[in-house]
Amino acid sequence: MPEKFYITTPIYYVNDVPHIGHAYTTVAADVMARYQRLLGRDVYFLTGTDEHGQKVEKTAAAKGVTCQEFADSVAPRFRELCGALGASNDGFIRTTEPRHKEAVQRMFTLLQEKGAIYKGEYEDWYCVPCESFWTELQLNGGKCPDCGRDVDKLKEESYFFKLSEYGDRLAEKIESGELVIMPESRKNEILSFVRSGLRDLSVSRTSFTWGIPVPGDERHVIYVWLDALTNYLSALGWPDETGDYAKYWPADTHVIGKDILRFHAVYWPAFLMAAGLPLPKRIFSHGWWTKDGEKMSKSRGNVVDPFAVVADLDELGLGADAFRYFLLREVPFGLDGDFSKDAMVTRINTDLANDLGNLHFRTINMIEKYLDGEIPALEGRELPTVLAGNAEGGSYDACWEFHGLYESFRARMDEMAFSEALQAVWRLISEANRLIDHTAPWALAKSDKPEDRRKLVEVLGVSAQVLKASSVLLHPFMPVKTQAIYGQLGHADSLDAFTLTNSNRYFMYDPGQRIVRGPAPFPRIETDKIRAKKAAAEAAASGKPAPVSKVSVGRDAPGAPEVKKASPSPQPSPARGEGAKASSAPAPDSDARIKIDDFMKVDLRVGRVLEAERVPKSDKLIKMRIDIGAEVRQIVGGIGKSFGPEELVGRTVVVVANLRPAKLMGIESQGMVLAAGEPDTLMLAGFDADVLPGTKVK
Ligand code: ME8
Fold this sequence. Notes:
The chain is of the alpha/beta class. The protein is 39% helix and 17% strand. Among the domains are: 351-507, Isoleucyl-tRNA Synthetase, Domain 1, CATH 1.10.730.10; 574-585 and 594-697, CATH 2.40.50.140. Helix 12 crosses helix 13 (341-370) and helix 15 (418-439) runs antiparallel to helix 17 (450-473). The longest helix is centred in the middle third of the chain and has 30 residues, at 341-370. The chain is elongated and about 100 Å long.
């Protein structure tokens, strides 16, 4: 029998539409659920909607609909959010469902039977939006300490839960680790709150009606938090203690935002203790997202709509996976983060399009081109010793330590340190890319020496293994894209059913496995193009002429005399003075010599080739996108007889950055790449160590 794993998100209030905060919790819980499935566990992943309470009652009244109608209109949006984000939830609970109402009423009577609830009178300060009572001392300048709004003095008959009796036991359980609260700082916060003394808690209301009635005393509705928290049980069929409840309770992890920690880490375990039910094992409280440095709110109008973000990314061929990756990579889980589109684009372009995208592109293309599409099996060779002795600079040995990677990835994932777990995989991806740079398989492929052939096979075999390892380990984060990469490595099985066991073996290939070519998984986001397109669309809508975009400035100017500058045949390097063309270089004392000032006019920059593709109907021209630090240039070069696109991607080159743009076969070239030699034996100018793109060459 596999071990079980029960994970939950909070149930979201229908009073609000889904926003990035909800998306964040759902994605984090989904990644954990998928990771646990990868480990072979029997997972139950629950999410849902919280539909009772005074706020819902007020909103529904304002809209002139019944509370149920209002809830019915909003709840499906949260269900759709799961779909849009690729969440793999096994259950979705709504608190207006009969199964939930029955469970909440049973919880209430059970607490009464155990003597944990008594009737009394309540008088305190009440915050309507937060649905919380506050003592005089807790108020912040007379306002609600949570939301800062006005509070009202309320007195009402109420049922109370004897929370004050559970403080010591609760603190013990938290201290002993029986109930884990993460991160550590949050645990300390809760411990000091518990130790400061707990007051009995009002668990019923008579001031509104939209809730679950107290059994036998229907003037009271059950406190919305007792109602809401019970969803974690009702979704498993409790009070029936067989079936899913027997299988999955207690929860292994409740994922929540820091705003609702106290309800989960104090009230919920106290209710469960009083009811004689087992406590959840772990509560992880994550941080808060702001937008461009500001708190998100409807009134500010800066709420990030996750549906819109996913739709935009879908249009770019990236889908929800890129959003999921960004959310969990950008901010260490547990800390606060700030959302901006620029940060998201940078993250996606750097990590996904460049690093992982390059490894994918080069591996697939080179195996196809040099090894006839067959993935090397590297059979009988131990991973850690593959290529031993061929290391240059000793940096890429780490590449083979799948075992080490697996251990550190697991350790990070187990503690929900998603960003760090991703960084562990990215170290491997970078090592593999560096390995390709150092060993230059495109050069090895041209050699007749048997040791070069062996090296070629090993480099590409290892690249394929790294790509496979990455697609498996990253599957919980990017389920769609990793499946696509995995499929291109010739696997027909679903990664959803893949089980990781503690062995290196599954990253190895058996002979005969073949590449199945497919589209690039992570197209680069061209912000310039998007802006231009948007401006054109806006202009079209307003009937005005489209503004000249940054991308198109001066490009298509008719008659611009610059064809020569972006000549498809780069000039030979004067420094080397080799070859037929070099012999036509001016004599040293000729008047044609230039002054240093003239040379300094040429802006030479270090560039890194991000993408490369052949220009259709040309055997010579290659269109590249080259990162030159401040921007990405499209450059068309006449180097196609010497290099294939896969040999160029990832290469560091020298770019003439201040040439006027020119068109080659109708395609704009915004600079020139330096190379030397004849068209079919060109060598690219480069450096003997890594240099950052954008660095000036002088
Ligand atoms: O609190 N950044 O529901 P809710 C990060 N119904 N996460 C955020 C966020 C932000 N800016 N805003 C919201 C409730 N969240 C109750 C829960 S559970 C028994 C009842 C996330 O719709 C975060 O997970 O207000 C937070 O805990 C949750 O949404 C609150 O959702």
